[in-house]
Amino acid sequence: MNYIKLSVYTLLCTVLFVSCKHHEEARRPVSQASGTFMKKSADRNKKLVASEEDVIKNIIKNNPKVKYYATRKGYWLSYDERNLTDTQTPQKGDIAYFNLEIKDIEGKIIYSEAELGPQTYYVDKQDIMMGLRDGIKLMHKNETVTFLFPSHIAYGYHGDNKKIGTNESLICTVTLRNFVPDPEAGPVTTATTPAKATSTKTAIETKKDTLTP
């Protein structure tokens, strides 16, 4: 009887050991496949960025009369209208008022300035295109700047789900009309006149992201 119990126990241990070993071995290819996928994905992204940058560099090369400036964020800009008098640029929390036109990399208009209308942007407090988020902070009042944005700092893989497609580089022309401090972010003071109270209320009520086409 003890022999039978010992045999059953040995059989159960053997089954459990084989099962665990098989389970561990079955998991390895998943990990390896995951690592391979990530590496291939990273390589594709590098090739995509390099390809888009080559296109942009050809645009710059073919327009020798236009002075383009490379930025630390990986995009380029040129000045259509430059303001060398003012030194201030928009800072976090400022309200920027500007006009915007968006073209594809071949220069075809995707969104015209008239279609988008006047833009209002609370600097670094709204979720907008990464390139514009950085580029606007380089501008002075009354300047018009043309930006060349690779897709990874534009609308990326997903586009804007409307007119801008997957992995699309963009040409954006921005005219910064004005920028002012956000009255809501200032020190708390007691309103001395109804006009001031009404003005502050209006500014708060109209706070919205008008950048999304």
Report on this structure.
The chain is of the alpha+beta class and 213 residues long. Helices cover 38% and strands 20% of the residues. It contains 4 helices and 7 strands; from the N terminus they run H-E-E-E-E-H-E-H-E-E-H. Strands 1, 2, 3, 4, 5, 6 and 7 form a 7-stranded antiparallel sheet that branches. A hairpin with a 4-residue loop joins strand 3 and strand 4. The longest helix is centred in the N-terminal third of the chain and has 60 residues. The chain is globular and about 50 Å long. The C terminus is likely disordered.
Name some characteristics of this structure.
single chain, 213 residues, alpha+beta, 7-stranded antiparallel beta sheet, globular, disordered C terminus
Compute the number of strand runs: 7
| Distance N to C terminus | 82 Å
State Rg: 28 Å
- Mind describing the biggest β-sheet? 7 strands, antiparallel
Give the oligomeric state: single chain
* Pattern of helices and strands: HEEEEHEHEEH
Enumerate the spans where pLDDT stays under 50 for 5 or more consecutive residues: 20-26, 188-213
Share of residues in helices: 25-40%
Mean pLDDT: 80
Q: Describe the global form.
A: globular
Count of alpha/pi helices: 4
Strand fraction equals 15-25%
Structural class: alpha+beta
